[in-house]
Write a structure and sequence with these properties.
Helix content is 37%, strand content 31%. By secondary structure, it is α+β, with helices and mostly antiparallel strands. It has a ten-stranded mixed sheet. A hairpin with a 2-residue loop joins β6 and β7.
Length: 266
């Protein structure tokens, strides 16, 4: 179980302290919610439906696709879309380097966080958004040893990075960012590198003994958007689980009530 707290910006000059719990396993959700916690909102990910039905005022149904890492590498590769497999092979000729960054590596090279943030924010700027990487949240996950980064380097430059929330059994995609929208970018090569990195991430977690690779959400199984279709091409199983939100302070309770009014939670 990963248990972290950090500040999250809601609107201009308004921040909430969010306590996120991932992979609660057999822990009692009622027990977790009953603990005294210094946070406005408690957010528990991956709760069985039986734990939520009729018991919590703030819960949401969550869809994702998930690769079973207990399967053999050959079985997993065979389940990947044929065109994507070709791009894996083509990427091997692109002279890219794939690197993984644990808490230790990031601690030894603190400038990496600036590089991650730069790529992430440039990607959103290319979409017309000023979205920022929540570095303070990432630092909390690093302190809990609950996050891992992977990246593709080409000619001395990082061109793609991924981040994952992970513990001993589960890895969930948190960020995926690249520079492929920039005018000077080799879009085809970066697209191949991104696909290849996802596959290498899957193999990395398998070798580490994890059991599941969670793609971080699917918006609609019946009418998948472009990102959904990309994720589904890697052969994962369609999974539904539930998240629970609980207000722990007056501000937190108001935030959960607002989420219910906006139909973000039930």
């Amino acid at each position: 179980m990963i248990d972290v707290s950090y500040r999250k910006k809601i609107v201009q000059n308004l921040y909430l302290q969010v306590n996120q719990i991932w992979y609660p396993g057999t822990a009692s959700i009622t027990g977790l919610l009953g603990q005294r916690r210094k946070a406005d909102i408690l957010f528990v990910h991956g709760v069985p439906f039986e734990e939520t039905k009729g018991r919590f005022r703030g819960w949401q149904e969550y869809h994702t696709c998930m690769n079973d890492l207990t399967r053999s590498e050959e079985e997993m590769l065979a389940a990947v879309n044929k065109a994507v497999r070709y791009q894996f092979r083509r990427s091997e000729k692109d002279q890219i380097e794939i690197r993984f960054y644990t808490k230790k590596e990031i601690g030894q090279s603190p400038e990496l966080m600036e590089t991650f943030a730069d790529i992430y924010e440039r990607m959103y700027q290319s979409k017309g958004s000023d979205t920022k990487l929540n570095v303070s949240a990432i630092q909390k996950y690093l302190e809990a040893d609950g996050i891992l980064f992977s990246a593709v380097w080409h000619e001395g430059e990082m061109i793609v990075f991924h981040s994952y929330i992970c513990d001993a059994t589960d890895a969930r995609l948190l960020h995926s960012a690249s520079c492929f929208r920039e005018e000077s970018a080799d879009q085809s090569m970066i697209g191949r590198a991104n696909k290849r990195l996802h596959w290498e991430d899957i193999l990395y977690f398998k070798k580490k003994g994890l059991l599941r690779y969670d793609w971080g959400g699917i918006s609609d199984f019946d009418n998948p958007n472009g990102i959904d279709e990309f994720k589904l091409k890697f052969g994962g199983d369609k999974i539904t689980y539930y998240n629970v939100f609980a207000g722990n302070t007056l501000l937190g309770k108001l935030a959960v009530a607002a989420m219910r009014l906006m139909k973000r939670v039930n």
